[in-house]
Amino acid sequence: MKQSILVMGGGVIGLSCALELQRRGHRVTVLEINRCGGQASGAAAGMLAPYSENLESPDAFFRFCLQSLRLYPDWQEMVKKVSGRNFEYTNSGSLYIAYHEADLLALEGRLLWQQQFGSSGSILEGDALFRLEPNLSRNVRAALHTPEESHLYAPHYVSALEQACRLTGVEIHDNLGKLSVTEWRNEIAVQSADQRSFSADRLLVCSGAWVQELSDTFGLRIPVYPIRGQICAYEVEEKPVRHMVFSNQGYLVGKENGTLVCGASEDVAGFDTSVTDKGIDRLRKWNKQAFPFLENKIPFHRWAGLRPSTQDGFPLIGSLTGASHVAFAVGHYRNGILLSPATAMLAADCVEGKNPSEFNQAFSPERFGRRG
Ligand SMILES: Cc1cc2nc3c(=O)[nH]c(=O)nc-3n(C[C@H](O)[C@H](O)[C@H](O)COP(=O)(O)OP(=O)(O)OC[C@H]3O[C@@H](n4cnc5c(N)ncnc54)[C@H](O)[C@@H]3O)c2cc1C
């Protein structure tokens, strides 16, 4: 049945869910306190890297990330077609580098379980590695090469999502300032700072690192915290880094527009999105070790965003048991860009009350219990 749905939050998650729900025939309104894509989503490096981001085991989070990577080829094509906008989407593959023998053992362990989950990865050493990534430091002992991993240009992707939403009929209200959920037990009512009222049959909360503000409203513990990511970019010529290159210190990814993006710190700084010399200097130190040609290069651009981190590392995606017309899709931490298509599908299914998926329990928004 066609429903009216309010989506709170116009980041990559809110916009992806809104687009999917509108395409399924619902009437969707996005409410954004600021500017769509103006927070974590616009700050992201855009890596779609489930294997490089999940080092330990094939848990529910890894499987969800992998599902999302596999949805991407069709999803991004749909977003481009519907929005009429192009954005970079590149299957560069990735290299996870190791400097020491002990780290190589860890890579071999990862490769073993990741091969069982579709990775065609391999460990590369010596000439084979340097042929693939010629400017890599000769101090690198080996790397785990994962050809399946891709990346996109996040700011353009998010703005294409916004345009796709508008063109399919999603109503977007931005720069609303503070929003209050004034009614949710039976029907949904939300009020903006300037006293505008919005009502609907259903509510989907996608407010990223700010979701904890709604704990009192819903009487729920929502342990989602902002973790600042400081990140920078160099101007380069002729793509000197061909793959996404990861280590336990950071990552580098070359973009079509001639920039080399290097991220990212993980600091606890509340909701402060300023960039510090200390944060960027730490990244630069690592960059030079991995790619000596960066020795004297200074990043031309530095920025930061707030990743929505959760207490157990899993996102909160699902409806409330006692109020199934209220759902959440938050807490994607380092992987919200990667997870946008899979979250859009899962959250839309939850909003429509469809059969539970294998992820419902692990990602339940109520798993941390009630407040107080
Ligand atoms: C430096 C950095 C690099 C990253 N790199 C990658 C990467 O390479 N790959 C990847 O997959 N992920 C990456 N991430 C993570 C990714 O950016 C996040 O997981 C993702 O953007 C989260 O999306 P979101 O929509 O939940 O949050 P956001 O983009 O923060 O959007 C939430 C929105 O909700 C709005 N809002 C807040 N409160 C309310 C309210 N009460 N009502 C309405 N609206 C509200 C905010 O203004 C904001 O626009 C990176 C993050 C950072 C910071």
UniProtKB/TrEMBL annotation:
Pathway the protein contributes to: Cofactor biosynthesis; thiamine diphosphate biosynthesis
Reaction(s) this enzyme catalyzes, per UniProt: glycine + O2 + H2O = glyoxylate + H2O2 + NH4(+)
Enzyme Commission code: 1.4.3.19
Lineage: superkingdom: Bacteria
Domain FAD dependent oxidoreductase residues, every copy: 5-349
Uppermost EC category: oxidoreductase
Name of a matching Pfam family: DAO
Record keywords, A-Z: Oxidoreductase, Thiamine biosynthesis
Single GO molecular function: glycine oxidase activity
Key word Oxidoreductase present: yes
PANTHER family xref list: GLYCINE OXIDASE, SARCOSINE DEHYDROGENASE-RELATED
Protein name: glycine oxidase
Provenance organism: Paenibacillus harenae
Lineage of source species: Bacteria, Bacillati, Bacillota, Bacilli, Bacillales
